[in-house]
Amino acid sequence: MNIVELGHQDYLTTWQSMKEFTDTRTSESEDELWIVEHPSVFTQGIAGKSEHELNINNIPLIKTDRGGQVTYHGPGQLIIYCLIDLQTKGFGIKKMVSILEESVIQLLKFYSIDAQLKPGAPGVYVNQSKIAALGLKVKQGKTYHGLSVNIDMDLQPFAQINPCGYPGLQVTQLSDLADNDVSLSQVSKQLTQLIITNINQHE
Fold it and tell me: Whole-angstrom Cα distance, residue 100 to residue 87?
């Protein structure tokens, strides 16, 4: 699997690149994980409801084609876009979501943080506060979009929305929970390796 380090990239540009990669890949194309940080942006999922946009100002809102409701991306948040051929892997979207969630839980264990899942609410939580969000798109058996993990960022913009469509949902981040300093680059390496290992175990 190819790991592509994109650094800081505009959301719209990255989204377009994901769609082009997915539309043009062949059965011979390797799967890829794209590592990226975005400038401040709200994104609304394909079935998103405007009622969850509470007080959005000075930050752009982009209607996108992933699953899920509205969320926020910004500097200090780790985003991993998962360009995976599920047909080749031999499992479906529910298993892919489970793999991503379990990978984040395993990551947080490295930092002595106990994380949980919530039935019916995709993502990863610590003490009822959301630390990781997921939103995928499947096209002809291939995924794009992926997950975001709050590492060391300004969490204030989350107050301008109902995060992922849940009124009053609190959010948290790794830097506020870990005993030691954390770096986004270090967490990126750890989490991508966990995702690759867990995908390979389910092939």
Answer: 17
User: All domains of the chain, ordered by start, with CATH?
Assistant: 2-202 (3.30.930.10)
Q: What is the 3-state secondary structure (H, E, C) of 162-173?
A: CHHHCCCCCECC
143 by Cβ neighbours in 10 Å (0-12 / 13-18 / 19+) ranks as buried
| Per-residue pLDDT tens digits of the chain, which is 203 residues long | 999 999 999 999 999 999 999 999 998 999 999 999 999 999 999 888 888 888 888 899 999 999 888 999 999 999 999 999 999 999 999 999 999 999 999 999 999 999 999 988 889 999 999 999 999 999 999 999 999 999 999 999 999 998 888 888 999 999 999 988 899 999 999 999 999 999 998 87
Spatial separation of the C-alpha atoms in residues 77 and 190, rounded to whole Å: 15
The three-point CA angle 166-172-174 to 5° equals: 145
- Is pTM beyond 0.85? Reply is yes
Q: Residue 100 is which amino acid?
A: L
Active centre residues (catalytic)? 164
Residues 163 and 76: their CA atoms lie apart, in Å, by 17
